[in-house]
Amino acid sequence: MGLIGLIPWAEAQCPADDIPLRWSPDEIAAIRSLWIGNLPRLAPDPSNAVADNPRAAAFGHRLFFDTRLSANGKVACATCHQPARYFTDGLATSLGMAATPRNAMTLVGTAYSPWFFWDGRKDSQWAQALAPLESRAEHGLSRRKLATIIGRYYRDEYQNLFGALPALADSKRFPPHADALGNRKQRAAWQRMAEADRLAISRIFANIGKAIAAYERRIMPGAARFDAFAEAVINGRQAAAANALSKDEIVGLRLFIGPAGCLQCHNGPQLSNFEFHSTAISMGIRDIDAGRALGIKQVLQDEFNCLSRHSDANKESECAALRFAVRDWQNQPSAFKTPTLRNLAFTAPYMRNGQFRNLREVLAHYNQGGTDRADRNELQALNLNQRELAQLEAFLSSLNGALDMPADLMLPPSVIRTNK
Amino acid sequence: MTHFSKASKSAGAILLAWLACSQSVIAQTSPTQQEVPFNRVDANAQVGERGRYRVKVTKTPAVIPINEIHTWTVYVETADSRPLIGAKIEVGGGMPQHSHGLPTQPKVVLVLSAGVYLIDGFKFHMPGYWEVDFNIDAEGVKDKVKFRLQLQ
Predict the structure, then answer these.
(1) Which of A78, A388, B48, B110 has a 20 to 30 Å separation from A163 between CA atoms?
(2) What is the pTM of this model?
(3) Domain match, A238 and A383 both
Protein backbone atom coordinates (compact mmCIF):
# COMPACT_ATOMS: atom_id res chain seq x y z
CA MET A 1 0.00 0.00 0.00
CA GLY A 2 3.01 2.25 0.43
CA LEU A 3 3.35 2.37 -3.33
CA ILE A 4 0.85 5.18 -3.59
CA GLY A 5 3.39 7.57 -2.14
CA LEU A 6 5.78 6.90 -5.02
CA ILE A 7 3.47 8.39 -7.61
CA PRO A 8 2.29 11.81 -6.45
CA TRP A 9 0.21 12.53 -9.55
CA ALA A 10 -1.98 9.51 -8.89
CA GLU A 11 -3.17 10.60 -5.49
CA ALA A 12 -5.75 13.12 -6.50
CA GLN A 13 -7.43 11.15 -9.27
CA CYS A 14 -11.10 10.74 -8.47
CA PRO A 15 -12.58 10.94 -11.93
CA ALA A 16 -16.20 10.90 -10.87
CA ASP A 17 -15.84 14.51 -9.81
CA ASP A 18 -13.04 15.89 -11.89
CA ILE A 19 -11.59 14.57 -15.12
CA PRO A 20 -7.82 14.68 -14.97
CA LEU A 21 -6.31 15.13 -18.37
CA ARG A 22 -2.88 14.05 -17.30
CA TRP A 23 -1.93 10.55 -18.24
CA SER A 24 0.82 8.42 -16.80
CA PRO A 25 3.43 6.89 -19.13
CA ASP A 26 1.75 3.50 -18.64
CA GLU A 27 -1.66 4.89 -19.53
CA ILE A 28 -0.26 6.60 -22.62
CA ALA A 29 1.35 3.31 -23.62
CA ALA A 30 -1.99 1.55 -23.23
CA ILE A 31 -3.80 4.25 -25.24
CA ARG A 32 -1.16 4.07 -27.96
CA SER A 33 -1.52 0.28 -28.12
CA LEU A 34 -5.22 0.68 -28.96
CA TRP A 35 -4.73 3.53 -31.44
CA ILE A 36 -5.52 2.63 -35.04
CA GLY A 37 -2.27 4.28 -36.10
CA ASN A 38 -0.61 1.40 -34.28
CA LEU A 39 -2.10 -1.11 -36.74
CA PRO A 40 0.93 -2.52 -38.56
CA ARG A 41 1.16 -2.78 -42.30
CA LEU A 42 -0.77 -5.91 -43.29
CA ALA A 43 1.64 -8.82 -43.69
CA PRO A 44 1.33 -10.99 -46.82
CA ASP A 45 -0.75 -14.16 -46.57
CA PRO A 46 1.79 -16.72 -47.77
CA SER A 47 -0.92 -19.37 -48.08
CA ASN A 48 -2.71 -17.34 -50.76
CA ALA A 49 -0.62 -16.45 -53.83
CA VAL A 50 -3.28 -14.02 -55.12
CA ALA A 51 -4.04 -12.36 -51.78
CA ASP A 52 -2.72 -8.97 -52.90
CA ASN A 53 -3.52 -9.28 -56.60
CA PRO A 54 -5.95 -6.48 -57.60
CA ARG A 55 -7.53 -8.63 -60.32
CA ALA A 56 -8.21 -11.33 -57.77
CA ALA A 57 -9.78 -8.71 -55.46
CA ALA A 58 -12.04 -7.51 -58.31
CA PHE A 59 -13.02 -11.12 -59.05
CA GLY A 60 -13.60 -11.79 -55.37
CA HIS A 61 -15.73 -8.65 -55.09
CA ARG A 62 -18.08 -10.02 -57.75
CA LEU A 63 -18.18 -13.48 -56.21
CA PHE A 64 -18.89 -12.00 -52.78
CA PHE A 65 -22.15 -10.40 -53.90
CA ASP A 66 -23.27 -13.10 -56.36
CA THR A 67 -26.36 -15.05 -55.25
CA ARG A 68 -25.86 -17.49 -58.13
CA LEU A 69 -23.26 -19.07 -55.86
CA SER A 70 -26.01 -20.85 -53.91
CA ALA A 71 -28.34 -23.80 -54.39
CA ASN A 72 -31.48 -21.62 -54.31
CA GLY A 73 -29.98 -18.62 -56.11
CA LYS A 74 -30.72 -16.35 -53.13
CA VAL A 75 -27.66 -16.54 -50.87
CA ALA A 76 -24.40 -14.67 -51.34
CA CYS A 77 -21.54 -14.03 -48.93
CA ALA A 78 -23.08 -10.55 -48.62
CA THR A 79 -26.33 -12.04 -47.30
CA CYS A 80 -24.82 -12.59 -43.85
CA HIS A 81 -21.93 -10.13 -44.27
CA GLN A 82 -23.69 -6.92 -45.26
CA PRO A 83 -21.45 -3.90 -45.85
CA ALA A 84 -23.98 -1.50 -44.29
CA ARG A 85 -23.86 -3.55 -41.08
CA TYR A 86 -20.07 -3.66 -41.14
CA PHE A 87 -20.24 -7.08 -42.74
CA THR A 88 -22.60 -8.67 -40.24
CA ASP A 89 -26.34 -9.38 -40.61
CA GLY A 90 -28.07 -7.97 -37.54
CA LEU A 91 -29.43 -11.38 -36.57
CA ALA A 92 -28.74 -13.33 -33.38
CA THR A 93 -27.89 -16.39 -35.45
CA SER A 94 -27.53 -16.27 -39.19
CA LEU A 95 -29.93 -17.44 -41.84
CA GLY A 96 -28.72 -18.80 -45.17
CA MET A 97 -30.61 -21.59 -46.92
CA ALA A 98 -31.62 -22.58 -43.39
CA ALA A 99 -30.91 -21.51 -39.81
CA THR A 100 -27.32 -21.67 -38.58
CA PRO A 101 -26.27 -22.02 -34.93
CA ARG A 102 -23.92 -19.05 -34.78
CA ASN A 103 -23.83 -15.29 -35.05
CA ALA A 104 -22.16 -13.92 -38.21
CA MET A 105 -18.82 -12.36 -37.27
CA THR A 106 -17.74 -9.14 -38.88
CA LEU A 107 -15.19 -9.42 -41.69
CA VAL A 108 -13.70 -6.01 -40.89
CA GLY A 109 -9.98 -6.25 -40.18
CA THR A 110 -10.00 -10.05 -40.14
CA ALA A 111 -6.97 -10.21 -42.45
CA TYR A 112 -4.96 -9.64 -39.27
CA SER A 113 -6.44 -12.64 -37.46
CA PRO A 114 -4.72 -16.03 -37.36
CA TRP A 115 -8.06 -17.80 -36.76
CA PHE A 116 -11.52 -17.67 -38.31
CA PHE A 117 -15.03 -18.43 -37.07
CA TRP A 118 -15.88 -18.20 -33.38
CA ASP A 119 -14.08 -21.51 -32.74
CA GLY A 120 -11.10 -20.93 -35.04
CA ARG A 121 -11.82 -23.98 -37.17
CA LYS A 122 -10.18 -22.22 -40.15
CA ASP A 123 -6.78 -20.57 -40.31
CA SER A 124 -7.05 -18.20 -43.28
CA GLN A 125 -9.58 -15.90 -44.89
CA TRP A 126 -9.64 -18.08 -48.01
CA ALA A 127 -10.22 -21.32 -46.13
CA GLN A 128 -12.96 -19.60 -44.12
CA ALA A 129 -14.74 -18.38 -47.25
CA LEU A 130 -15.06 -21.97 -48.51
CA ALA A 131 -16.99 -23.43 -45.59
CA PRO A 132 -20.29 -21.53 -46.08
CA LEU A 133 -20.32 -22.33 -49.80
CA GLU A 134 -20.54 -26.06 -49.03
CA SER A 135 -22.64 -25.74 -45.88
CA ARG A 136 -26.18 -27.02 -46.39
CA ALA A 137 -27.52 -24.29 -44.10
CA GLU A 138 -25.72 -21.49 -45.95
CA HIS A 139 -25.04 -21.53 -49.72
CA GLY A 140 -25.88 -25.23 -50.05
CA LEU A 141 -23.57 -25.86 -53.02
CA SER A 142 -21.23 -28.71 -53.82
CA ARG A 143 -17.75 -27.84 -55.00
CA ARG A 144 -18.54 -29.71 -58.21
CA LYS A 145 -21.56 -27.47 -58.89
CA LEU A 146 -19.57 -24.40 -57.98
CA ALA A 147 -16.99 -25.34 -60.63
CA THR A 148 -19.77 -25.36 -63.24
CA ILE A 149 -21.04 -21.95 -62.08
CA ILE A 150 -17.51 -20.53 -62.35
CA GLY A 151 -17.07 -22.04 -65.80
CA ARG A 152 -20.38 -20.55 -66.93
CA TYR A 153 -20.18 -17.02 -65.51
CA TYR A 154 -16.55 -16.34 -64.66
CA ARG A 155 -14.46 -18.40 -67.09
CA ASP A 156 -12.17 -15.56 -68.20
CA GLU A 157 -11.61 -14.07 -64.75
CA TYR A 158 -10.84 -17.48 -63.36
CA GLN A 159 -8.54 -18.65 -66.14
CA ASN A 160 -6.62 -15.36 -66.24
CA LEU A 161 -5.72 -15.82 -62.61
CA PHE A 162 -5.51 -19.56 -62.10
CA GLY A 163 -5.04 -21.20 -65.50
CA ALA A 164 -7.27 -23.44 -67.58
CA LEU A 165 -10.40 -25.00 -66.16
CA PRO A 166 -10.69 -28.77 -66.75
CA ALA A 167 -13.21 -30.26 -69.21
CA LEU A 168 -16.17 -29.95 -66.87
CA ALA A 169 -18.65 -30.74 -69.65
CA ASP A 170 -17.40 -34.34 -69.63
CA SER A 171 -20.08 -35.69 -67.29
CA LYS A 172 -18.47 -39.11 -67.10
CA ARG A 173 -15.30 -37.66 -65.64
CA PHE A 174 -17.11 -34.91 -63.73
CA PRO A 175 -20.64 -36.09 -62.81
CA PRO A 176 -22.65 -32.91 -62.10
CA HIS A 177 -24.29 -34.42 -59.01
CA ALA A 178 -21.02 -35.64 -57.44
CA ASP A 179 -20.87 -34.34 -53.89
CA ALA A 180 -18.71 -35.56 -51.01
CA LEU A 181 -21.20 -34.10 -48.52
CA GLY A 182 -24.41 -35.14 -50.32
CA ASN A 183 -26.70 -38.16 -50.17
CA ARG A 184 -25.52 -41.69 -50.78
CA LYS A 185 -25.80 -41.48 -54.55
CA GLN A 186 -24.04 -38.11 -54.72
CA ARG A 187 -21.25 -39.32 -52.44
CA ALA A 188 -20.80 -42.46 -54.53
CA ALA A 189 -20.51 -40.37 -57.70
CA TRP A 190 -17.82 -38.26 -56.03
CA GLN A 191 -15.93 -41.36 -54.91
CA ARG A 192 -16.06 -42.86 -58.41
CA MET A 193 -14.29 -39.86 -59.88
CA ALA A 194 -10.57 -40.25 -60.56
CA GLU A 195 -8.48 -38.90 -57.71
CA ALA A 196 -6.83 -36.37 -60.03
CA ASP A 197 -10.26 -35.10 -61.11
CA ARG A 198 -11.46 -34.77 -57.53
CA LEU A 199 -8.30 -32.84 -56.81
CA ALA A 200 -8.89 -30.61 -59.85
CA ILE A 201 -12.37 -29.73 -58.54
CA SER A 202 -11.05 -29.09 -55.05
CA ARG A 203 -8.35 -26.86 -56.50
CA ILE A 204 -10.98 -24.73 -58.28
CA PHE A 205 -12.83 -24.55 -54.98
CA ALA A 206 -9.70 -23.40 -53.11
CA ASN A 207 -8.97 -20.78 -55.80
CA ILE A 208 -12.48 -19.35 -55.41
CA GLY A 209 -11.79 -18.94 -51.71
CA LYS A 210 -8.49 -17.22 -52.49
CA ALA A 211 -10.19 -14.71 -54.81
CA ILE A 212 -12.88 -13.95 -52.21
CA ALA A 213 -10.12 -13.49 -49.61
CA ALA A 214 -8.29 -11.06 -51.90
CA TYR A 215 -11.46 -8.94 -51.73
CA GLU A 216 -11.96 -9.41 -48.00
CA ARG A 217 -8.39 -8.29 -47.27
CA ARG A 218 -9.44 -4.81 -48.36
CA ILE A 219 -12.13 -4.53 -45.64
CA MET A 220 -10.43 -2.54 -42.90
CA PRO A 221 -11.51 -0.46 -39.92
CA GLY A 222 -11.05 3.29 -40.20
CA ALA A 223 -10.28 5.88 -37.56
CA ALA A 224 -12.87 6.51 -34.85
CA ARG A 225 -13.23 9.42 -32.40
CA PHE A 226 -11.10 7.46 -29.94
CA ASP A 227 -8.25 7.50 -32.47
CA ALA A 228 -8.33 11.29 -32.71
CA PHE A 229 -8.21 11.35 -28.92
CA ALA A 230 -5.35 8.84 -28.79
CA GLU A 231 -3.32 10.77 -31.34
CA ALA A 232 -3.80 13.96 -29.34
CA VAL A 233 -2.77 12.27 -26.08
CA ILE A 234 0.30 10.69 -27.67
CA ASN A 235 1.36 14.09 -29.02
CA GLY A 236 0.66 15.87 -25.74
CA ARG A 237 -2.15 18.01 -27.16
CA GLN A 238 -4.38 18.08 -24.07
CA ALA A 239 -6.97 20.51 -25.38
CA ALA A 240 -7.51 18.50 -28.55
CA ALA A 241 -7.79 15.35 -26.46
CA ALA A 242 -10.40 16.94 -24.21
CA ASN A 243 -12.45 17.91 -27.25
CA ALA A 244 -12.28 14.48 -28.88
CA LEU A 245 -14.07 12.53 -26.15
CA SER A 246 -16.71 13.36 -23.56
CA LYS A 247 -15.94 13.19 -19.85
CA ASP A 248 -17.88 9.95 -19.51
CA GLU A 249 -16.01 8.43 -22.43
CA ILE A 250 -12.67 9.37 -20.88
CA VAL A 251 -13.65 7.87 -17.53
CA GLY A 252 -14.85 4.77 -19.39
CA LEU A 253 -11.46 4.56 -21.12
CA ARG A 254 -9.71 4.73 -17.75
CA LEU A 255 -11.87 1.86 -16.53
CA PHE A 256 -11.21 -0.06 -19.74
CA ILE A 257 -7.42 0.16 -19.58
CA GLY A 258 -7.38 -0.05 -15.79
CA PRO A 259 -9.44 -1.82 -13.16
CA ALA A 260 -12.09 -3.34 -15.43
CA GLY A 261 -9.35 -5.49 -16.98
CA CYS A 262 -10.83 -5.36 -20.51
CA LEU A 263 -7.36 -4.91 -21.97
CA GLN A 264 -6.43 -8.44 -21.03
CA CYS A 265 -8.23 -9.87 -24.07
CA HIS A 266 -9.34 -6.75 -25.95
CA ASN A 267 -5.86 -5.47 -26.69
CA GLY A 268 -4.12 -4.05 -29.76
CA PRO A 269 -5.57 -1.62 -32.31
CA GLN A 270 -8.52 -3.86 -33.11
CA LEU A 271 -9.18 -4.42 -29.40
CA SER A 272 -8.87 -8.17 -29.83
CA ASN A 273 -6.11 -10.69 -29.29
CA PHE A 274 -7.91 -13.05 -31.74
CA GLU A 275 -7.42 -15.91 -29.29
CA PHE A 276 -9.89 -18.09 -27.39
CA HIS A 277 -11.36 -17.51 -23.96
CA SER A 278 -14.09 -18.99 -21.80
CA THR A 279 -16.46 -16.26 -20.73
CA ALA A 280 -19.48 -18.33 -19.69
CA ILE A 281 -21.46 -17.53 -22.80
CA SER A 282 -23.16 -20.93 -23.06
CA MET A 283 -26.66 -20.63 -21.64
CA GLY A 284 -28.33 -23.76 -20.36
CA ILE A 285 -27.85 -27.39 -21.28
CA ARG A 286 -29.55 -27.05 -24.65
CA ASP A 287 -26.96 -24.55 -25.77
CA ILE A 288 -23.72 -26.41 -25.20
CA ASP A 289 -21.12 -25.45 -27.77
CA ALA A 290 -17.68 -27.03 -27.56
CA GLY A 291 -16.09 -23.95 -29.14
CA ARG A 292 -12.31 -24.10 -29.50
CA ALA A 293 -12.12 -27.68 -28.16
CA LEU A 294 -13.77 -28.83 -31.41
CA GLY A 295 -12.46 -26.02 -33.62
CA ILE A 296 -8.82 -26.99 -33.02
CA LYS A 297 -9.48 -30.56 -34.17
CA GLN A 298 -11.24 -29.29 -37.28
CA VAL A 299 -8.54 -26.82 -38.29
CA LEU A 300 -5.79 -29.40 -37.83
CA GLN A 301 -7.66 -31.80 -40.12
CA ASP A 302 -8.88 -29.17 -42.59
CA GLU A 303 -8.02 -30.09 -46.16
CA PHE A 304 -7.58 -26.35 -46.88
CA ASN A 305 -5.42 -25.35 -43.91
CA CYS A 306 -2.06 -23.59 -44.22
CA LEU A 307 -0.20 -26.90 -44.25
CA SER A 308 -2.44 -28.46 -46.91
CA ARG A 309 -1.65 -29.16 -50.57
CA HIS A 310 -3.93 -26.25 -51.54
CA SER A 311 -1.95 -23.73 -49.50
CA ASP A 312 0.78 -21.72 -51.24
CA ALA A 313 2.80 -21.34 -48.03
CA ASN A 314 6.22 -22.75 -47.30
CA LYS A 315 5.15 -25.51 -44.91
CA GLU A 316 8.51 -25.55 -43.10
CA SER A 317 8.94 -21.88 -42.30
CA GLU A 318 5.42 -20.42 -42.48
CA CYS A 319 2.03 -21.43 -41.01
CA ALA A 320 3.38 -20.68 -37.51
CA ALA A 321 -0.10 -20.26 -35.99
CA LEU A 322 -1.03 -23.79 -37.02
CA ARG A 323 2.36 -25.42 -36.41
CA PHE A 324 2.50 -24.10 -32.87
CA ALA A 325 -1.20 -24.32 -32.09
CA VAL A 326 -2.19 -25.69 -28.70
CA ARG A 327 -3.86 -28.98 -29.53
CA ASP A 328 -5.46 -29.97 -26.26
CA TRP A 329 -8.47 -27.85 -25.33
CA GLN A 330 -10.46 -30.59 -23.62
CA ASN A 331 -10.04 -28.92 -20.24
CA GLN A 332 -11.35 -25.62 -21.52
CA PRO A 333 -14.79 -26.14 -23.05
CA SER A 334 -16.78 -23.35 -24.62
CA ALA A 335 -13.83 -21.07 -25.38
CA PHE A 336 -14.51 -18.64 -28.21
CA LYS A 337 -12.50 -16.09 -30.14
CA THR A 338 -12.28 -12.57 -28.76
CA PRO A 339 -14.19 -10.27 -31.14
CA THR A 340 -13.03 -6.78 -32.10
CA LEU A 341 -14.63 -3.93 -30.17
CA ARG A 342 -14.48 -1.48 -33.05
CA ASN A 343 -17.79 -0.48 -34.65
CA LEU A 344 -20.00 -2.30 -32.16
CA ALA A 345 -22.83 0.14 -32.91
CA PHE A 346 -23.27 -1.62 -36.24
CA THR A 347 -22.76 -5.25 -35.27
CA ALA A 348 -25.41 -6.10 -32.66
CA PRO A 349 -26.52 -8.56 -31.41
CA TYR A 350 -23.44 -9.84 -29.62
CA MET A 351 -21.64 -13.08 -28.71
CA ARG A 352 -21.37 -16.30 -30.67
CA ASN A 353 -25.06 -17.06 -30.25
CA GLY A 354 -26.23 -13.45 -30.39
CA GLN A 355 -27.65 -13.73 -26.90
CA PHE A 356 -27.11 -10.08 -25.95
CA ARG A 357 -29.16 -7.49 -27.81
CA ASN A 358 -27.16 -4.49 -26.69
CA LEU A 359 -23.97 -3.45 -24.94
CA ARG A 360 -25.77 -2.91 -21.64
CA GLU A 361 -26.53 -6.63 -21.53
CA VAL A 362 -22.97 -7.50 -22.51
CA LEU A 363 -21.50 -5.31 -19.77
CA ALA A 364 -23.94 -6.67 -17.20
CA HIS A 365 -22.69 -10.17 -18.04
CA TYR A 366 -19.06 -9.18 -17.52
CA ASN A 367 -19.87 -7.16 -14.43
CA GLN A 368 -21.30 -10.20 -12.66
CA GLY A 369 -18.47 -12.40 -13.90
CA GLY A 370 -20.62 -14.51 -16.18
CA THR A 371 -23.22 -17.02 -15.23
CA ASP A 372 -22.40 -19.66 -12.67
CA ARG A 373 -21.76 -22.77 -14.69
CA ALA A 374 -19.51 -25.76 -14.49
CA ASP A 375 -17.66 -24.53 -17.58
CA ARG A 376 -14.22 -23.08 -17.15
CA ASN A 377 -14.85 -19.38 -16.81
CA GLU A 378 -12.04 -16.84 -16.96
CA LEU A 379 -14.22 -13.96 -15.81
CA GLN A 380 -14.17 -12.44 -12.37
CA ALA A 381 -16.98 -10.20 -11.17
CA LEU A 382 -16.14 -6.53 -11.72
CA ASN A 383 -18.75 -5.11 -9.34
CA LEU A 384 -18.86 -1.78 -11.15
CA ASN A 385 -21.74 0.53 -10.35
CA GLN A 386 -24.35 1.59 -12.89
CA ARG A 387 -22.66 4.89 -13.60
CA GLU A 388 -19.34 3.18 -14.31
CA LEU A 389 -21.03 0.68 -16.61
CA ALA A 390 -22.59 3.56 -18.52
CA GLN A 391 -19.17 5.18 -18.79
CA LEU A 392 -17.62 1.99 -20.14
CA GLU A 393 -20.43 1.82 -22.69
CA ALA A 394 -19.80 5.46 -23.58
CA PHE A 395 -16.14 4.67 -24.21
CA LEU A 396 -17.10 1.77 -26.48
CA SER A 397 -19.23 4.18 -28.53
CA SER A 398 -16.08 6.21 -29.24
CA LEU A 399 -14.72 3.22 -31.19
CA ASN A 400 -17.30 3.55 -33.98
CA GLY A 401 -15.90 4.90 -37.22
CA ALA A 402 -16.12 4.64 -40.98
CA LEU A 403 -14.64 1.67 -42.78
CA ASP A 404 -11.27 2.10 -44.44
CA MET A 405 -11.86 0.60 -47.87
CA PRO A 406 -12.62 1.84 -51.37
CA ALA A 407 -16.28 2.91 -51.49
CA ASP A 408 -16.97 0.98 -54.68
CA LEU A 409 -15.95 -2.25 -52.97
CA MET A 410 -18.74 -1.75 -50.43
CA LEU A 411 -21.38 -1.85 -53.14
CA PRO A 412 -22.48 -4.82 -55.23
CA PRO A 413 -20.66 -4.80 -58.59
CA SER A 414 -22.94 -2.87 -60.95
CA VAL A 415 -22.41 -5.08 -63.98
CA ILE A 416 -22.36 -8.82 -63.85
CA ARG A 417 -20.88 -10.06 -67.08
CA THR A 418 -22.07 -13.42 -68.34
CA ASN A 419 -20.11 -15.81 -70.50
CA LYS A 420 -22.39 -18.35 -72.03
CA MET B 1 1.65 -5.96 -33.61
CA THR B 2 1.36 -3.94 -30.45
CA HIS B 3 3.88 -1.75 -28.76
CA PHE B 4 4.02 -1.38 -25.03
CA SER B 5 6.52 0.85 -23.34
CA LYS B 6 8.86 -0.40 -20.72
CA ALA B 7 6.70 -0.19 -17.70
CA SER B 8 7.18 0.82 -14.13
CA LYS B 9 5.46 -0.10 -10.94
CA SER B 10 2.97 2.67 -11.38
CA ALA B 11 0.30 0.25 -12.66
CA GLY B 12 -0.09 -0.77 -9.05
CA ALA B 13 -0.35 2.85 -8.03
CA ILE B 14 -3.10 3.47 -10.57
CA LEU B 15 -5.00 0.58 -9.06
CA LEU B 16 -4.49 1.94 -5.59
CA ALA B 17 -5.57 5.39 -6.70
CA TRP B 18 -8.71 3.79 -8.01
CA LEU B 19 -9.20 1.95 -4.76
CA ALA B 20 -9.26 5.30 -3.06
CA CYS B 21 -11.93 6.52 -5.48
CA SER B 22 -14.12 3.53 -5.95
CA GLN B 23 -15.12 0.32 -4.26
CA SER B 24 -15.25 -1.53 -7.54
CA VAL B 25 -11.79 -2.78 -8.25
CA ILE B 26 -10.52 -6.20 -9.20
CA ALA B 27 -7.14 -7.17 -7.87
CA GLN B 28 -4.77 -8.15 -10.64
CA THR B 29 -1.40 -8.24 -8.96
CA SER B 30 0.16 -10.54 -6.43
CA PRO B 31 3.21 -9.94 -4.25
CA THR B 32 5.38 -12.37 -6.22
CA GLN B 33 4.96 -10.40 -9.42
CA GLN B 34 6.69 -7.32 -8.15
CA GLU B 35 10.08 -9.03 -8.33
CA VAL B 36 9.55 -9.95 -11.96
CA PRO B 37 11.01 -7.69 -14.66
CA PHE B 38 8.55 -6.09 -17.07
CA ASN B 39 8.36 -7.08 -20.73
CA ARG B 40 11.59 -9.05 -20.76
CA VAL B 41 12.88 -12.37 -19.59
CA ASP B 42 15.11 -12.58 -16.52
CA ALA B 43 18.68 -12.75 -17.84
CA ASN B 44 19.83 -14.85 -14.87
CA ALA B 45 19.99 -18.60 -15.11
CA GLN B 46 17.14 -20.32 -13.29
CA VAL B 47 17.61 -23.58 -11.44
CA GLY B 48 15.16 -26.43 -11.82
CA GLU B 49 12.90 -27.40 -8.95
CA ARG B 50 14.91 -30.61 -8.47
CA GLY B 51 18.24 -28.88 -8.90
CA ARG B 52 19.25 -31.06 -11.85
CA TYR B 53 19.42 -28.47 -14.61
CA ARG B 54 19.90 -24.76 -15.09
CA VAL B 55 18.39 -22.75 -17.95
CA LYS B 56 19.54 -19.37 -19.18
CA VAL B 57 17.47 -17.59 -21.80
CA THR B 58 20.19 -16.14 -24.02
CA LYS B 59 18.13 -14.44 -26.72
CA THR B 60 14.59 -13.08 -27.09
CA PRO B 61 13.13 -9.99 -28.77
CA ALA B 62 14.31 -6.89 -26.83
CA VAL B 63 10.73 -6.33 -25.70
CA ILE B 64 8.59 -9.44 -25.42
CA PRO B 65 5.74 -8.67 -27.82
CA ILE B 66 2.05 -9.30 -27.22
CA ASN B 67 0.20 -11.27 -29.90
CA GLU B 68 3.24 -12.09 -32.01
CA ILE B 69 4.78 -15.51 -32.45
CA HIS B 70 8.51 -15.32 -31.75
CA THR B 71 11.56 -17.39 -30.78
CA TRP B 72 13.65 -17.78 -27.64
CA THR B 73 17.17 -19.20 -27.51
CA VAL B 74 17.98 -21.11 -24.33
CA TYR B 75 21.13 -22.62 -22.91
CA VAL B 76 20.64 -25.68 -20.72
CA GLU B 77 23.32 -27.04 -18.46
CA THR B 78 23.68 -29.71 -15.79
CA ALA B 79 24.19 -29.05 -12.09
CA ASP B 80 27.94 -29.40 -12.62
CA SER B 81 27.88 -26.76 -15.38
CA ARG B 82 28.21 -28.94 -18.44
CA PRO B 83 26.07 -28.20 -21.49
CA LEU B 84 23.09 -30.56 -21.62
CA ILE B 85 23.20 -32.32 -24.97
CA GLY B 86 20.26 -34.20 -26.41
CA ALA B 87 17.71 -32.83 -23.98
CA LYS B 88 14.03 -33.28 -24.65
CA ILE B 89 12.43 -29.94 -23.80
CA GLU B 90 8.69 -29.45 -23.49
CA VAL B 91 7.45 -25.93 -22.92
CA GLY B 92 4.48 -25.33 -20.64
CA GLY B 93 3.17 -22.57 -18.44
CA GLY B 94 0.46 -19.97 -18.71
CA MET B 95 -1.33 -17.42 -16.59
CA PRO B 96 -2.04 -19.01 -13.21
CA GLN B 97 -4.40 -16.18 -12.24
CA HIS B 98 -6.53 -16.85 -15.32
CA SER B 99 -6.30 -20.64 -15.10
CA HIS B 100 -5.13 -21.02 -18.66
CA GLY B 101 -2.00 -22.12 -20.42
CA LEU B 102 0.03 -20.60 -23.20
CA PRO B 103 -1.98 -19.86 -26.37
CA THR B 104 0.63 -21.71 -28.41
CA GLN B 105 2.73 -24.84 -28.00
CA PRO B 106 6.36 -23.70 -28.45
CA LYS B 107 8.79 -26.35 -29.69
CA VAL B 108 12.52 -26.83 -30.11
CA VAL B 109 13.14 -26.31 -33.82
CA LEU B 110 16.93 -26.33 -33.92
CA VAL B 111 19.92 -27.26 -31.77
CA LEU B 112 22.34 -24.39 -32.34
CA SER B 113 25.34 -25.77 -30.42
CA ALA B 114 26.07 -27.90 -27.37
CA GLY B 115 23.26 -27.17 -24.91
CA VAL B 116 21.85 -24.30 -26.98
CA TYR B 117 18.32 -24.79 -28.24
CA LEU B 118 16.24 -22.55 -30.50
CA ILE B 119 12.59 -22.65 -29.45
CA ASP B 120 9.96 -21.24 -31.82
CA GLY B 121 6.27 -20.60 -31.29
CA PHE B 122 6.18 -18.42 -28.17
CA LYS B 123 3.16 -16.18 -28.01
CA PHE B 124 1.60 -14.16 -25.20
CA HIS B 125 -1.84 -12.89 -25.97
CA MET B 126 -2.60 -10.97 -22.80
CA PRO B 127 -0.77 -8.46 -20.64
CA GLY B 128 -0.21 -9.62 -17.08
CA TYR B 129 1.70 -12.23 -15.13
CA TRP B 130 2.93 -15.29 -17.04
CA GLU B 131 4.94 -18.36 -16.17
CA VAL B 132 6.98 -20.33 -18.69
CA ASP B 133 8.08 -23.82 -17.68
CA PHE B 134 10.81 -25.79 -19.38
CA ASN B 135 10.17 -29.46 -18.69
CA ILE B 136 13.52 -31.06 -19.42
CA ASP B 137 14.22 -34.75 -19.82
CA ALA B 138 17.70 -36.08 -20.61
CA GLU B 139 18.00 -39.86 -20.52
CA GLY B 140 15.22 -40.12 -17.97
CA VAL B 141 16.58 -37.47 -15.63
CA LYS B 142 13.82 -34.89 -15.43
CA ASP B 143 13.52 -31.38 -14.06
CA LYS B 144 11.31 -28.35 -14.45
CA VAL B 145 12.77 -24.87 -14.77
CA LYS B 146 10.40 -21.93 -14.33
CA PHE B 147 10.64 -18.38 -15.67
CA ARG B 148 8.30 -15.57 -14.64
CA LEU B 149 7.22 -12.75 -16.90
CA GLN B 150 5.24 -9.59 -16.39
CA LEU B 151 3.91 -8.15 -19.65
CA GLN B 152 2.33 -4.79 -20.18
Answers:
(1) A78
(2) 0.87
(3) yes
